[in-house]
């Protein structure tokens, strides 16, 4: 059974999450502050952590940084903070996803399932399927309607990075660092050009993308669930 650690000082939120998550088969661990939350994470090593940013003893970003020194499983931020700066800062410091309060429980459950699924070890010869799009990571090939898509090595690397992080919002900085390196961290226009090229090749309607979704001011998200 997967376990989830909730680090949130709002008792009502913890109760709501406990009821919802338990009903979906998860084991729940709770903490009302950052210090105890870090201790519980170390003791129980949960499958996923839901972390609030507004904690009474520590800023949630600091908790996130401490956890990311060793914790390898997904962390989802659940916070009333909604500014782009807060979201980007959390994602750049290792959060897998960011959901603003108030939230819809159905959406949260879907994000949790995606995060846990993506944290599982991938098979060496993995073939990822998203509707009529297939991505073969071992052969470095992509197919649409069973026909090979002609991609450059950079385009395939970009597609593979997005597909392996299905459902997760990846910031511009993260993508640029992973694909091109630290020298390109400010080249967001460069990234937009490659995203546009990739959309022309994998989307049914590039002007209304359903796979490569723009998260305005933040980055991009690969939506393979439709």
How would you describe what is shown here?
- This protein is an alpha/beta fold.
- It folds into two domains: 3-119, 3-Layer(aba) Sandwich (Rossmann fold); 127-222, Arc Repressor Mutant, subunit A (Orthogonal Bundle), CATH 1.10.10.
- It contains eight helices and twelve strands.
- The protein has helices spanning 11-23, 34-44, 60-67, 84-92, 105-119, 153-164, 172-179, 188-202, and strands spanning 3-7, 27-31, 48-51, 75-79, 97-100, 127-130, 133-136, 141-144, 147-148, 169-171, 212-215, 219-222.
- The strands form three sheets. Strands 2-1-3-4-5 form a five-stranded parallel β-sheet, with helices on both faces.
- Helix 2 packs parallel to helix 3.
- The mean pLDDT is 90.
The major β-sheet equals: 5 strands, parallel
Tell me the structural class: alpha/beta
CATH architecture of the largest domain: 3-Layer(aba) Sandwich
The stretches of 5 or more residues where confidence is low (pLDDT under 50) are none
Shape: globular
Number of domains: 2
CATH topology assignment of the largest domain: Rossmann fold
Which value, in Å, is the CA radius of gyration? Answer: 18 Å
Specify the CATH class of the largest domain: Alpha Beta
Q: Could you tell me the number of beta strands? A: 12
End-to-end separation in angstroms reads 27 Å
**Topology pattern, helix = H, strand = E:** EHEHEHEHEHEEEEHEHHEE
Write the CATH homologous superfamily of the largest domain.
Response regulator
Helix % is 40-55%
Strand content: 15-25%
Average pLDDT metric: 90
Number of helices: 8
